[in-house]
Design goal:
Strand 7 and strand 8 (about 690-695) form a beta hairpin. The longest helix has 18 residues, at about 345-365. About 40% of the residues are buried. It is built from 38 helices and ten strands. Among the domains are: about 485-575, no CATH class; about 585-735, no CATH class. With about 725 residues, the protein is mainly alpha-helical. About 55% of the residues lie in helices and about 5% in strands. A five-stranded antiparallel β-sheet has the order 1-7-8-9-10, with helices on both faces. A three-stranded mixed β-sheet has the order 2-3-6. The chain has a two-stranded antiparallel sheet with strand order 4-5.
């Protein structure tokens, strides 16, 4: 037998590396592995990095510093599904960091991430790719990139994904995208609304909330609201509002309803289905401040439309808003005040708010919250505009402002706004009317009153017996344009006395333009014992032809004879039906007409101001020599007019001898009517003057130089039309004795 020879084992090939399991506790080592050519190594490295990044924001910053983002970006599009999935997971979680997002934008990764939303990709890839896009869509630049690179369509498709996380991430990204109007339009075109409505049924509150927030943005567009209504979106919203378990969604649902209520069609639909009553009841009964606030905001948005205001008034919205004024939450109070301001465009609502709403709003002026005080002040101003009955809030505000402890900027501002709606009170109390305070018919100058003193109405002043107090100067160039029914045609009420009906108030325009028009005040002096505003048929006759006491029996108008046959009770009933009207001043109307024809055609404001000053002075006695002012017997003249009228109220057109305050008032009245800006200032001892702003000519040799306007005091007494710079010695001499 031969010797047994031991067989030698062949050595392994020199180019093959033995399998090696590496356990690394260093992130830097794993980041280096992202450059490996082996798919298994790449997949494990990405998985390790995902776990590391998930532990906190500091780890994300560490990975960013180690240069992990660039190789991960390449792996997101890797051909191996596992590598691609794990790399996308890392991207999804790291994109929550702001610095990481900045680098992702620089690398322009959106296109690669959007590609991961394709239907053939794994559902986990969908989850983290949509998460990455949701994080990135926070910044405007990324919004634009995602939209321009077609990311919206696959995101909308994923709203129907079976995975709730995919739905959540997709709708969150869409919510960020629709902040831009282009994306809102695309959402409509891509028919995303039905899918978004389905999300409202989700068992996951966060998905419902994000869907509602998205609707809150896209429903700002009318086209979207129409689609929402056509897809029964309002039913979904009201179902949420009616479910107590969804109270954490009520605020967002109300925001969407608020937008929908802007459309009249939607408002009518909600009213017809009883939804509006539910909404108002919901607002009143809720104890959640944000719900109350959003309900009031919904009403505010809706109230900008006249038809919506009518519907809201029918549902007695005023009661709801007054209730919200009494809540404990400042946000709800401010929102309710804003809603009241919006509803004030309706006269019916304005009246409905008066009794209960105004006292509460006045109380809110003492609130410590600035937004509440501002909202209350604006609401009060709107409530009292063109509403004399509501303006009686005025006494309460004056009382507040007289108290050093209770007054504040907003109470003072509210009072100023109210006074802007009652210029007679403002001028009497403040002694100043700005160029924006336009004097209208019915204005009267009572003279200076102290703060807190109630100014009587013109009707009350007109009823007073003649006395030796300062005459009340009336501005009323408005020809009465009312006709009464047959049963009360024989009655007018001006000063509380029964007078015959006037055919003059139904004159043709041709007759009104003729010189035969006689004012109701002149009629009084022609027939003693009558009211100063009596408009009997004799007012069409020639002035001065009917002076004396009474009329002959055969000359009494037929209407007056009929009146005498009526019982006293009948007369009183008819009297109550007829509103009191201030006496018509035909002379003032003529002044305004003449000024419009002769002064408006002048080319510059300065020329118009000077011409109007001369016009006013001419109508009130002409220029007065400074040293002969004491000889100008204007007081006697005014007393004679009062005696003739048997009344303390004197129409300004009747005054032919006027001093400083008569002329300044007449100038302001006519200037306001023909569009010349000026203010009216009351001084002491019967002084008053007008201030006008004029731009001086550019200095010689300098063209195109725009100089600021200068304030001038206007002379209406000594040298009518003379302009004196404010603060100058001559201006001071004109303003003071």
């Amino acid at each position: 037998m031969g010797k047994k020879v031991k067989k030698e084992v062949e050595p392994p090939p020199k180019d093959v590396f033995d399998p090696l399991s590496i356990e690394s506790k260093k992130a830097a080592t794993v980041v280096l592995m992202l450059n490996s050519p082996e798919e298994e190594v790449l997949a494990k490295a990405c998985d390790a990095i995902y776990k590391f990044a998930s532990k906190g924001d500091e780890n994300k910053v560490t990975l960013l510093g180690l240069g992990a983002v660039e190789p991960l970006f390449k792996l997101v599009s890797h051909e191996d599904p596992l590598v691609r999935r794990n790399a996308t997971m890392v991207f999804g979680i790291m994109a929550s960091n702001n610095d990481v997002r900045k680098l992702l934008r620089e690398l322009d990764v959106t296109n690669s991430v959007i590609a991961r939303l394709a239907p053939e990709e794994d559902i986990v890839v969908h989850e983290f790719a949509s998460l990455c896009l949701a994080h990135m869509a926070v910044e405007y630049t990324s919004k634009v990139q995602i939209f321009e690179q077609g990311g919206l369509e696959p995101l909308i498709r994923l709203l129907s994904s079976p995975d709730p996380d995919v739905k959540k991430n997709s709708v969150e990204c869409i919510y960020h995208l629709v902040q831009d109007f282009q994306s809102r339009a695309a959402v409509r075109e891509l028919n995303a609304i039905p899918a978004l409505l389905e999300l409202l049924k989700s068992e996951y509150p966060v998905v419902q909330l994000l869907a509602l927030k998205t609707f809150g943005v896209i429903s700002n567009d009318r086209e979207t609201r129409i689609i929402l209504r056509e897809n029964q979106g309002l039913d979904h919203l009201f179902k949420i509002l009616e479910t107590k378990e969804f109270n954490d969604l009520h605020v967002e649902a109300l925001a969407v309803v608020a937008n929908c209520l802007e459309d009249v069609d939607t408002m009518q639909l909600i009213q017809q289905t009883g939804g509006l009553k539910k909404l108002l009841s919901f607002a009143e009964m809720s104890t959640i401040p944000d719900i109350q606030k959003n309900a009031a905001k919904a009403i505010t948005k809706a109230a900008y439309d006249p038809e919506n205001r009518r519907i809201l008034h029918e549902e007695e919205i005023e009661k709801c808003l007054v209730t919200l004024l009494g809540t404990d939450n400042d946000g709800a109070k401010a929102a309710a005040s804003q809603a009241i301001s919006a509803m004030c465009e309706s006269l019916a609502s304005k009246d409905a708010f008066g009794i209960q709403g105004i006292p509460q709003l006045v109380q809110l002026l003492s609130s410590e919250n600035e937004e509440v005080k501002e909202g209350a002040a604006i609401a009060l101003a709107n409530l009292t505009t063109a509403s004399p009955s509501n303006a009686s809030a005025l006494d309460i505000l004056e009382e507040i402002n007289l108290s050093t402890g209770r007054k504040n900027n907003f109470s003072e501002g509210a009072l100023d706004k109210l006074l802007d709606n009652n210029l007679s009170q403002k001028y009497s109390q403040m002694g100043y009317l700005s160029s924006s305070n336009i004097i209208t018919d019915g204005f009267y100058d009572y003279g200076q009153v102290k703060p807190g003193v109630k100014l009587l109405s013109l009707e009350e002043l007109n009823l007073q017996e003649l006395n030796d107090h300062r005459a009340i100067i009336l501005v009323n160039a408005k020809l009465p344009d009312v006709s009464f029914s047959a049963e009360d045609k024989s009655q007018d009420r001006y000063d509380g006395r029964t007078t015959s009906s006037s055919s003059s108030i139904r004159k043709s325009s041709k007759e009104r333009a003729s010189s035969a028009v006689v004012s109701p005040v002149e009629e009084k002096q022609e027939s003693s014992g009558r009211s100063p505003s009596s408009l009997s048929k004799s007012s069409t006759r020639e002035k001065g032809s009917r002076k004396g006491k009474g009329k002959k029996e055969e000359e009494k108008p037929k209407d007056e004879e009929e009146l005498q046959t009526m019982s006293k009770i009948q007369q009183e009933v008819i009297l109550e039906k007829v509103p009191w009207l201030p006496p018509f001043d035909s002379i003032l109307l003529d002044y305004i007409t003449d000024a419009s024809k002769t002064i408006l055609p002048l080319t510059t404001t300065k020329e118009q101001v000077v011409a109007l000053a001369q016009f006013v002075a001419d109508k009130m006695g002409g220029p007065i020599e400074r040293d002969k002012l004491h000889e100008f017997s204007w007081e006697l003249h005014i007393s004679e007019i009062e005696f003739e009228l048997k009344c303390n109220v004197v129409p300004i057109g009747k005054i032919k001898k006027g001093t400083f305050y008569h002329r300044a008032l007449l100038f302001k009245v006519i200037a306001d009517r023909i569009g010349i800006g000026c203010s009216l200032v009351r001084g002491e001892y019967g002084r008053a003057w007008n201030e006008v702003k004029l731009v001086d000519d550019s200095p010689q040799g300098i063209t195109g130089l725009l100089l600021p306007p200068q304030v001038y005091i206007l002379d209406l007494m000594y040298q009518p039309g003379c302009l004196m710079k404010q603060g100058s010695a001559e201006a001071d001499h004109y303003q003071h004795i």
